[in-house]
Design goal:
Strand order of the largest sheet: 4-3-6-5
Shape: elongated
Strand content: 35-45%
Number of helices: 3
Radius of gyration: 17 Å
Number of strands: 6
Order of helices and strands: EEHHEEHEE
Structural class: alpha+beta
Mean pLDDT: 95
Bound molecules: zinc ion
Largest sheet: 4 strands, antiparallel
Distance between the termini: 33 Å
């Protein structure tokens, strides 16, 4: 049985890969999944505020930024999160 559901983000109707997926509140259609954007955040050692480095990145860009050894040091590193 196809797991037809609607996307909570854009309300488009789509087919989920499973009934579990169709019932998740954080589900999304392929279009929304592929258009997610991420912000790169610099995390610092305890007590220091985090700093947003860049917003509106796609996943590939965020991953390659954070995978670069130049984006981490003693007591800090860059990570990313979905916007
Ligand atoms: Zn959607």
């Amino acid at each position: 049985m196809p797991n037809i559901t609607n996307c909570p983000r854009c309300s488009n109707v789509y087919e989920a890969s499973s009934s579990e997926e169709a019932n998740r509140s954080d589900r999304m259609c392929n279009e929304c999944w592929n258009s997610r954007t991420f912000r790169i955040v610099r995390f610092r050692q305890e007590g220091l505020p985090r700093e947003v480095i860049k917003e509106g990145c796609d996943l590939e860009e965020a991953r390659s930024h954070c995978g670069d050894p130049a984006t981490q040091g003693i007591g800090w590193f860059d990570g990313y999160e979905e916007e």
